[in-house]
Amino acid sequence: MLPCLLWCVWGQRNQLFHNGKHRDAAVILNWVENYVCSYRSAQHKRNTQALIPGHSNSVKQWQAPLPGSFKMNVDALLLSNNHGMGVGAVIRYFAGQVAHVCRSAKKRLIV
Questions:
Q1: What pLDDT does residue 4 have?
Q2: Minimal CA–CA distance to 1: which of 22, 25, 24, 29?
Q3: C-beta separation of 98 from 72 below 8 A
Q4: What is the model's pLDDT at position 2?
Q5: Is residue 50 located within the same domain as residue 65?
Q6: Is 87 helix (H, G, I), strand (E, B) or coil?
Q7: Do 50 and 37 share a structural domain?
Q8: Which residue of 18, 29, 87, 109 has the smallest Cβ count within 10 Å?
Q9: How many independent structural domains does the chain possess?
Q10: Are residues 28 and 13 in the same domain?
Q11: Do residues 103 and 86 make contact, with C-beta atoms less than 8 angstroms apart?
C-alpha cells in the first residue's frame, strides 16, 4: 500500500505544482484504498483463473509489426464499483521503438 500512496502523493504534488489543483489528504487516502482493493481483487481473479482446467494464464511475448509499419497496443480498465475507468495505448515502430503513448482516465461513471 505504501508504494501506491507514494505514487499518489507524487501525482498530487505534480497536479498542485503544474495545474494548481489540490486534493485533501482524506480524498487521496480514499483513492489509494480503492486502488489497492481493486488491484488485489484483480490479482485474486487472475490467480483463481489459473486454477480453472483448460484456462491458460500465460503472458504472450510482444511481437514487432512488419517493417515499415506501426503497431498499437491498447488496454482498458473498468472498476467494478463503477467509480472510474481508464484507457491507455502505445504505438511502436516496427523496430520496437515507442512512437507515441497516450492515456485517459475518468472518475465516477454514470451508466
A1: 80
A2: 29
A3: no
A4: 80
A5: no
A6: strand
A7: yes
A8: 18
A9: 2
A10: yes
A11: yes
Of residues 77 and 110, which shows the higher confidence score? 77
From 111, 88, 87, select the one nearest 98 (Cα to Cα). Answer: 88
Query: What is the tens place of the pLDDT at every residue in 83-103?
Result: 778 888 999 988 888 889 988
Phi, psi of 104, rounded to the nearest 5 degrees = -150, 140
All three cell numbers of 88, joined, read 491507455
Spatial neighbors of 76 by CB under 8 A, at least 6 apart, are 85, 86, 87, 88
Which residue segment(s) compose the domain that 70 sits in?
60-106
One-letter-per-residue 3-state SS of 26-44: HHHHHHHHHHHHHHHHHHH
Per the DSSP assignment, residues forming a β-bridge with 92 are 71, 98
Q: What is the pLDDT of residues 23-52, one digit of tens each?
A: 888 888 888 888 888 888 877 776 665 555
What local confidence, expressed as pLDDT, does residue 111 receive?
47
d(CA 46, CA 34): 18
